[in-house]
Amino acid sequence: MFVDQLPDPLNRLGSKDSVTRHLTSGEALFTQGSTTSGLYFVQSGEIILSRTTDSGHSVVIHRARSTDTFAEASLFSDVYHCSATAGCASVVIECRKSATRKLLNDNPDFTLSMLERLAKQLQTSRRQVELLSIKKATDRVLAALTDGLLGDDINSFADTIGLAPETVYRTLAQLTNEGKINKTSRGKYQLPNPNVLTR
Fold first, then answer.
1. CA-to-CA distance for 100 and 194, rounded, in angstroms?
2. Residue 127, by phi and psi: left (phi above 0), alpha (psi -120 to 50) or beta?
3. What class has domain 3-130?
4. What is the fold of 134-198?
5. Which of 15, 48, 62, 164 shows the smallest number of beta carbons within 10 Å?
């Protein structure tokens, strides 16, 4: 594992302080209640974090995607408070708990950079909650397009904003017909503002 595969500031870890893990779809990375070993960076794929309630129900609490970190709370806990499962073939990099904590304790620049990274991810998560609270499909899709959330896969886009793919396809067609967005090619759309593009 080369540390340059990690984003700043995690790339400041030593080469022995991180390990790459390749997961198949549905494979568990860790389970709720298991001993913590560190936080993770998603190099590719998707990791589904779920928690089992006291009544035995499994609830998805987060989906970590490419360039996200997750399980940050493991740095301050003996056990994981949720389970992590690959939603598809995925590659994650484990950042060792002891080494990451040492950097947090000894390196103020690392600590500030980590806080900045986590704050940005928190902003993204809060925006996700805000998007999911928009009831009308047209309003939710338009808001998500404005945020630049539509990548190359409309099905993933639909999953991100909590709508069925069929609903998203219909809504995109409706927004195009109403002149609120422009379809530039198959699966690619442009907002009337030429400075904001969605794919």
1. 42
2. alpha
3. mainly beta
4. Arc Repressor Mutant, subunit A (1.10.10)
5. 15
